[in-house]
Amino acid sequence: MLRTGVAKDYETVDGVLEVRHAYVEVADTGLGMDEDTCRRCLEPFFTTKGERGTGLGLAMVYGVMQRNSGAVDIESSLGKGTTMRLRFGVTRNGDAPSDRAVLPTTVPVPMHILVIDDDPLVAQALCDTLERDGHHVTIANGGEAGVDTFRAARNQGDGFDLVLTDLGMPYVDGRRVAKAVKAESPSTPVVLMTGWGRRMVAEKDVPAHVDHVLSKPPDICALRDVLASCSAIES
After folding, report:
1. Where are any strands of DSSP class E within 68-132?
2. What is the pLDDT of residues 97-119, one digit of tens each?
3. Closest by alpha carbon to 174, among 160, 188, 190?
4. Domains of the chain
5. CB-based contacts of 145, cutoff 8 Å, min separation 6
6. Antiparallel, parallel or unpaired: β 16-28 and 71-77
7. How far apart are the C-alpha atoms of 151 and 177, rounded to whole Å?
């Protein structure tokens, strides 16, 4: 059984009752999770589904909530189901939170971008975002297809301005894609997307042949900043 709901909590400010948080809650009465699984379920690539799972679904939700000053609360126990609660902060008087990123008023110069990801939904969502900013986007399903697409375009004299690739893909992962791209065209920027993006940058563990690392799913402001820096170098 699955149930959903929306709730709010309040606080009194200057004698006025105001909304402090809004919640979106999804709960089920399924198998539930033990303590270790519940603690790790938001980690990128952690999955209990074996080969059927990527371990990125909840990690992507968590990343989106973090970048929007929200939080994810999870309550679960074996045999009693799971409750997933998304907690959003509500601003006062329509003011934007001070730590909230403001979308830039300009977007990077239009580029021809190759998006490589083995998840069609993620690739298409990214393509739609980029095309709204005026970029021309080609999608390749997985690392092997991505490298083949890049080489074929160069052989036809119609290369890409930038390659945007996922890290965790079977057979040919993002590291191998970056190496192959740089072997063909050392000047082509390679941007790597991964759920471990922030940790990689913080620990200075950016893979060889990669120019930039973005958390997955990428924040639109961070994505635009990276594309702008790459287009500036190209020009």
Report:
1. 71-77, 81-89, 112-117
2. 444 444 444 566 899 999 999 98
3. 190
4. 2-89 (3.30.565.10), 112-234 (3.40.50.2300)
5. 116
6. unpaired
7. 11
Tell me how far apart the alpha carbons of residues 207 and 192 are, in angstroms, rounded to a whole number.
9
- Give the separation between CA 161 and CA 217, rounded to whole angstroms: 21
Q: Are 93 and 37 in contact (CB under 8 A)?
A: no
- Whole-structure pTM value: 0.59
> Is the pLDDT confidence value at 159 over 50?
yes
How is residue 66 written in tokens? 């973090």
Contact 193, 206 (CB under 8 A): no
Residue 187 three-state SS = coil
Quote the CA–CA distance of 206 and 212 in Å, as a whole number.
8
Nearest Cα to 5, choosing from 90, 85, 93?
85
Q: In whole angstroms, what is the distance from residue 178 CA to residue 188 CA?
A: 10
State the Cα–Cα distance between residues 81 and 32, nearest whole angstrom. Answer: 4
